[in-house]
Amino acid sequence: MKPILLENLYIKVNKNNLDQKLRYNDGGNVHMDFHGATNTTIEFIINKYGIDTMNDIFKKVGNDVYKDIKDHIKKGNIKMLAKHWQHFFDRENADYNISINDEEIILTVNRCTAYEHVRKLVGNVSPNFCDQTIKTNEALAEDTPYEIKTEILGEAACRQTIRKRA
Amino acid sequence: MIPSDHFTRFYNEVFKFLEDQGEEHLEAYWLEISKNQEKHTLKLFKEKGLKGMYEYWDHIRIEENCDMDLKLDDEKLELRMNVCPSLSKVLDNDAEPMKRYCDHCAGWIGPLIDKVDHHLVYDVIDRNKPQCVVKIFKDKEKAIEEEKNAKLLMGWPKKKK
């Protein structure tokens, strides 16, 4: 299905149609500098232990830290992932939109504020910075009936799609 | 994106991996984080001393949603963390918490305070409770005296004797 058709076929997410309780439902202020520490960590681990180790750690984040979302995906409730995206991309003031139907959910990030904040903090963002998204998503979908595809569209922009495996 | 709200849970996974590799691996990482933090703090701490440290942690108190009391006088800065959001999140976690999670804090702050010729006394009190007391002294002897009162005193890599 071509993205150009999305406006006609999909329901855009708003505050009212994802009324589910998140396992981690943070509020209060947002400390964006943590993304700088994530960037430092990615560089440190890859330089010292290699990219496979970094990916294994992201896999643990997907499988263990986000166990609750993964359990929902296993049961076919992919809207919980959309709720998670919505909550945290709102908190970080990102420019994004989510399209959702019964078969798939597409998150399009036009301006990732995490990436932009790191660029502002340190200048050069790790070339592996977006692996945190790609690899965590892969782990979330592993051993579930769904796949999550993460496409990098350019600096600070990506598309993440969760849909049933073919 | 791992949300900034969830960084500490990611951090926890990194710590568990490094702890499995050995103590020196954990310490090397804390030093890397310390170097990273120098970008935000070293100039401020060097130029303003305890007052600069107060400014930094007051900003952190607000931005990281800490339940923390800060007290500054001529001799020391005291941070009394009543509810630490970092450890609280790690404990409220579907992944297993690293048992020595609290150690990282002294692990990065200690080397930084050494660098600006002040003296850190870091009392974690209990690694399973999200609270601690941090005192930073101008005078080394006063810091050594204060260490005797700590319930669970933290060290850090290459701590100045």
Overview of this structure, please?
The complex is a heterodimer of chains A (166) and B (161). In chain A, 46% of the residues lie in helices and 20% in strands. Chain A has one domain (32-164): Muramoyl-pentapeptide Carboxypeptidase, domain 2. Chain A has helices at 6-9, 34-49, 51-65, 67-74, 79-91, 113-122, 131-141; strands spanning 11-12, 95-100, 104-111, 146-154, 157-164. The two termini of chain A are 14 Å apart. Chain A has a 5-stranded antiparallel sheet with strand order 1-2-3-5-4. With 166 residues, chain A is an alpha+beta fold. With 161 residues, chain B is α+β, with helices and mostly antiparallel strands. Chain B has a single domain, classed as Muramoyl-pentapeptide Carboxypeptidase, domain 2, CATH 3.30.1380. Chain B has helices at residues 7-21, 23-48, 50-63, 85-91, 103-115, 140-147; strands spanning 67-72, 76-83, 119-123, 132-137. Chain B has a 4-stranded antiparallel sheet, sandwiched between helices. The longest helix of chain B is centred in the N-terminal third of the chain and has 26 residues, at 23-48. The A-B interface holds A 23-24, 26, 28-38, 40-41, 44-45, 48-49, 53, 56-57, 60-61, 64-68, 88-89, 91-92, 109, 112, 114, 121-122, 132-133, 136 and B 1-11, 13-14, 17, 21, 28-29, 32-33, 36, 39-40, 60, 62-65, 89, 92-96.
